[in-house]
Specification:
With about 270 residues, the protein is α/β, with parallel strands linked by helices. The chain has helices spanning about 20-30, 50-55, 65-75, 110-120, 135-140, 150-160, 200-210, 215-220, 225-230, 245-255, and strands at about 15, 35-40, 60-65, 80-85, 100-105, 125-135, 160-170, 175, 180-190. It contains ten helices and nine strands.
């Protein structure tokens, strides 16, 4: 059995969850069942890994730290736990059995790109449960015209139904981070609800629209679509990207894709 002490590595953004009450709440939110296909990102010292294993037949974990990967293999049999020593940003989640459930305390220094990477496998996933920096969760669930509303909000709200579950103070970790955290649930929307003719085209429109937050759509999207075309779609070119609901970006992307106007911007405003 491995008993050596692990020194947290700053380059991996390691802050280990140590509060048993928070662990219990996270496991309760995930509510794993024996036959579920679950993968945990960043298991660390196993705060979530152990209670997950108690309720699952088998668990996959993705851990970039070589020492922690070795520690997990020493503590748990390969029949119960598969340890993938890899960078989660490069890991192919689509290679695991579906429907997949993804969970983890995401490293805060790579949380945004990791959210986009995991979302690429959304069609094969049942749900995601992540602990993230509170500021990131604020951005994820923000509504149009709120200061936190931006590219992350639109891209994730298009693909998922988001549920902010509860906040987690710094004192629940060792070492303590300088920020508060929050746990969020992401439920993939059915494909028939998505609406965009091209997801890459949709992403391009959203990225360009938010490239200059203070500028109006007339300016930010000038290379993609004219002010007159925006007006034809019922979208005021004098508005900023921050004011538009998700469906308005779908409408613009579909116009550019030659697929018509898509859903009316007001229908998917929430």
């Amino acid at each position: 059995m491995a008993t050596r002490r692990h020194a947290p590595r700053k380059r991996f953004g390691q802050h280990f969850l140590v509060d048993p009450t928070i662990v219990e709440r996270i496991i309760g939110a995930i509510d794993p069942r024996r036959g579920d296909h679950v993968v945990e990102i960043g298991p660390g010292l196993g705060a979530l890994t152990v209670p997950l294993l108690a309720r699952l037949d088998h668990l996959h974990v993705v851990e970039i730290d070589r020492d922690l990967s070795a520690r997990l293999r020493e503590l748990h049999s390969a029949e119960r736990l598969t340890v993938h020593q890899a960078d989660a940003l490069e890991f192919d989640f689509a290679a695991l059995p579906a429907p997949l459930r993804i969970a983890g305390n995401l490293p805060y220094n790579i949380s945004t790109p990791l959210l986009f990477h995991a979302a690429a496998s959304a069609s094969r996933c049942r749900d995601f449960h992540f602990m993230l920096q509170q500021e990131v969760v604020d951005r994820m669930v923000a509504k149009p015209s709120e200061s936190e509303y931006g590219r992350l909000s639109v891209i994730l709200q298009y693909r998922f139904r988001l549920e902010r579950l509860f906040d987690v103070p710094p004192g629940c970790f060792r070492p303590q981070p300088k920020v508060h955290s929050a746990v969020v649930r992401l439920l993939p929307r059915p494909m028939e609800q998505l609406g965009a003719a091209s997801e890459s085209g949709f992403s391009r429109v959203v990225t360009q629209a938010f490239s200059m937050r203070r500028k109006t759509l007339r300016n930010t999207l000038s290379g993609l679509i004219s002010a007159g075309e925006l007006a034809e779609l019922g979208i005021d070119p004098g508005r900023r990207a921050q004011e538009l609901p998700v469906a308005a970006f779908v409408t613009i992307a579909n116009r550019l894709a030659g697929a018509g106007t898509g859903p009316h911007p007001q229908r998917l405003a929430k």
